[in-house]
Amino acid sequence: MAYATTNPYTGEVLNVFPDATDSQVDQALDDAHNAFLLWKDTPLSQRKVILQRAADLLRERATDYARLLTLEMGKITAEGRAEVEISAGIFEYYANNMETLLAPEALSVAHPNEGKPTLVYEPLGIILAIEPWNFPIYQVARILAPQLAAGNTMLLKHASNVPQSAAAFDQLMLDAGLPDGAFRNLFATRQQVEKIINDPRVHGVALTGSEGAGAIIAAQASRALKKSTMELGGSDAFVVLADAELDKTVNWAVFGRHWNAGQVCVSSKRMIVVDEVYDAFLSRYIEGVAQLKAGDPFDPSTTLAPLSSQAAADEIRGKIREAVAHGATATEVGPKVPSQGAFVQPTILSNLTPDNPAYYWEFFGPVTMIFRAKNEEEAIQIANDSPYGLGGSVFTADPLHGAEVAKRISTGMVFVNHPTSPKADLPFGGIRRSGYGRELTDLGIKEFVNHKLICIVDIDAPFL
Ligand code: NAP
C-alpha cells in the first residue's frame, strides 16, 4: 500500500512517499544492530537524559505535531495536543523510573546451598514495531520509550496513511540525542516487514492494529521463533447500574464513544444499561450525542471529527447496513454531518441479538451498540459475551461495589466511573482476540528483555 498523506476533511492528497528500497531496509538493519552494540552498554544515566529530552521536545513542538495529526488522520486539535502530552508523559515516565524498573532482583531460595540467585534484565537487540494510524504519535511513544529504556533498538513500520507523523519521529529522536540507527522509520512493504522479522538480529515484534494483521504478523514471528506482543481490537462494555449518577454517566458515555471520532481500541462501544435506568439513560444519551458538532477538525468548536479516511467511513456504513440486514435497528442521531469529509452520522444500534453477526463486531467509528439488561447479573453476562477482552467500565454510585463488578468483567482493563483511559503510568493490553502482552509500566519494559538468572554458588557442600 502506498504511503501518502490524504486530508480526510478535504480529501486532498497532500504528499506521497515512495516505499523503502531493499537497500534502505538492509542499511536500517545494519545500523540498528550496530547502534544496539553501543546502546546496550550505554549507562542508564545517559539513556534517561535522551528520553527526557524527547519528552521536552514533544512538548516544545506540540503545536506542530498536533497539526500533523489533524492533517493526516483528521484528529481535532485539542485531542491532538492531548495525544502529544501523553506521549511526552510516557518518555518522562521511563526517564524517571527506568533505573528502578530495571534494577536487578535478588531471589529468595529455600536452601542456602542453592547459592545467591539474582535476576537481571538484559536487552535483546532490534525490535520491530508495527503501528496503527489512530494515535500516530502516542502508539509509537508507547513502544519506543520502554524499548529504548531497556537497551533495545527499534525499527518502525507505521500505518501507510500517517507517513509524516512517522517520519517526524526520526527527527525527534535524532534531535533528542539518540545515536543514529537506534530508531528508524521505514516505509516498508509487507515483503520487507517479513524479511525484517526473519533477520536474525531482530528479536521481537510488537504490533498494534487489527485482528487480521495481528494473526499474520504473529504467525510470521512464531515461524521465525521470535516473541511478539499483540495489541488488537476491542469492543469495550460500558455498564450502567441502577444507582449510577446519570448526568455524569451520560457525559462520559458520549465522550467515551465519540472521542477520536470513535476510532479508539478502548472506545465505549457497547452501552449495557440495566432495565430500571435504560429509558432515562437512552433519552439523555441521544440528547448528548446530538450536541456534538461535526466539522473542520482545525476549528476549535468542532467536537466530532471526520474518520481517518473515506474508505474507513464507507466500511463502517457498510457494517451498519449489514447489522440492520440481520435484524438490528439503526437510529441516526443529531444534525446531519457535513457532506464534505469522511464523516459518519452518529448512529445507535439497538435490538442486537447474539444471532446477528454484528453483535460480536468492533465498530471503529461513531456507532453505539446499546443493550437493555434485566439486572446487574445479565449486564455482566452481556459484557463478557464478546470475542474481545480489552477494556471496559462500570458506572455506579457505590465505587466499592463497582470494583466487585469490575472483577467479574473478563478484560485486561476495567475502570469504575470512567471510560477506559490510557495513561502514561498505567499498563495497557487485553486478552482473547484483543491480543496478548502488555505495554507501558514495568510490564511493557520487560516484554522484550532477557530475564537472566545469575546464581553465585561458592560452597563446598554438594549441590542439591
Ligand atoms: P491494521 O489495518 O491492522 O493496521 C495496523 C498496522 O499494521 C499498519 O501499520 C498496517 O500497515 C500494518 N499491517 C496490516 N497488515 C499487515 C501485514 N500483512 N503485514 C505487515 N503490516 C501490516 O489496523 P487499522 O485498521 O489501521 O487499525 C485499527 C485497529 O487497531 C482496530 O481494530 C483497533 O481496535 C486496533 N487498535 C488496537 C489498539 C490496542 O492497543 N489494543 C490501539 C489502537 C488500535 P498499512 O497501513 O500499510 O496497511
UniProtKB/TrEMBL annotation:
Superkingdom of this entry's organism?
Bacteria
Please provide, alphabetically and separated by semicolons, the GO molecular function terms listed in this UniProt record.
Answer: aldehyde dehydrogenase [NAD(P)+] activity; succinate-semialdehyde dehydrogenase (NAD+) activity; succinate-semialdehyde dehydrogenase (NADP+) activity
Keyword Oxidoreductase recorded: yes
Q: Specify the enzyme's EC class, one word.
A: oxidoreductase
Stretches of the chain forming a coiled coil according to its record: none
The Aldehyde dehydrogenase domain is annotated at 3-453
UniProt-listed Enzyme Commission number(s)? 1.2.1.79
Keywords of the record = NADP, Oxidoreductase
Similarity field: Belongs to the aldehyde dehydrogenase family.
**Protein name (record):** Succinate-semialdehyde dehydrogenase (NADP(+))
Native organism is uncultured Desulfovibrio sp
Gene of this entry:
ssdA
